[in-house]
Amino acid sequence: MKTLSAACAGLLFGLGLAMSGMLDPARVLRFLDVDGTWDPRLAFVLGGAVTVSALGYSLSCKMKRPLFAQKFEITTNRRIDLKLLGGSALFGLGWGLAGFCPGPGIAALSISLEKPFIFVTAMLVGMWMYKQLEAYVPRRPRLVPRALEP
Question: For residue 99, how many other CB atoms are within 10 A of its CB?
Fold first, then answer.
């Protein structure tokens, strides 16, 4: 049942992206082009997504546990570190250059092959490279004990 619900959620997400036109990287790039042919539609899509997410999060706070899991997986990490900032910067840079982020890039494979395939391939290679690099970079010792972190 958990897999079926995840598949239904993914299909609903992909359908929403397709209906809103967010599978077209040119539309996303026009949203980012505030000096040229700015297209505000992405702001409405993002606003709708934030609203649905906020409602879902609010509902989850009232539930004892999720329907298809033993507990909610909510992070307790509140640190802003170099990995978070670097990942955010790379995400934004890639989104601004390609007009795709991971969800729409994968969903766009259903309507076109060339640009989304290049994007998804580059994304997968980048993920693989990160895993390889992470395995070879030694972990630095923590300077502040966990109990003293804010």
Answer: 23
78 within 8 A of 5, measured Cβ to Cβ: no
Residues 91-123 have pLDDT tens digits of 999 888 889 989 899 999 988 878 999 999 999
Cα separation, 107 vs 39, in Å, equals: 21
Q: Which DSSP string corresponds to 48-77? A: HHHHHHHHHHHHHHT-SS-TTSSS------
User: Considering the entire predicted model, what is its pTM?
Assistant: 0.73
Structure token pair of residue 78: 């509140």
Contact predicate 79/149, CB 8 Å: yes
Q: To 5 degrees, how large is the angle CA 29–CA 98–CA 126? A: 150
**The token pair that represents 146 in the structure block:** 């966990």
pLDDT tens, 29-59? 999 888 888 999 999 999 999 999 999 989 9
Q: Which residues of 7-45 are buried (b: 16+ CB within 10 A; e: fewer)?
A: eeeeeeebebbbebebbbbebbbbbeeeeeeebeebeeb
| 3-state secondary structure string across 79-100 | CCCHHHHHHHHHHHHHHHHHCC
Residues 45, 53: contact at Cβ < 8 Å?
A: no
